[in-house]
Amino acid sequence: MDDTCREVREAEGICETFEPSDELKRLYREAAKRFHPDRASDDADCRTRTDIMAQVNVAYQRNDIEALRRILAADENSPDAILGEEVASRLIRAIRRLAQVRIRLQAIAEEIAALKTGDMYQLKTKVEAEEAAGRNPLEELSIVLQKKIAAARIILQQ
To answer: What share of the chain has pLDDT > 70, as a percent?
Structure first.
């Protein structure tokens, strides 16, 4: 784990020595005990556990205690943690599923908001505005670039 952690941190440009805190180690061990694929009951459970362990490993490698806490909390509040088929158990599972959907919808809304502040979205908006005004911005850009290329060729030939 330490070698993998070092490799990931180096790839991300983080040069300092990785010294996990006691809290990070404790949360990692708790998550590993809870989610390790070796504890799976079937193939689908193994795939789910493998995905979660990948998230756990990334959080550990990034020294992200909050991410580990979120992963553990999500499991504790999971609909699958409620056993039984009586009405109360089914109702609790339904409530927890709704809560998961609300959380995911909020995350999607935040992702959309972040995308709208990005350069690609700004470019898309400008292109749409130009097209709405009857102009073809990509064609205009092509003409400008062709002129610059022609000018650069003349300079190179001299």
So the answer is: 89
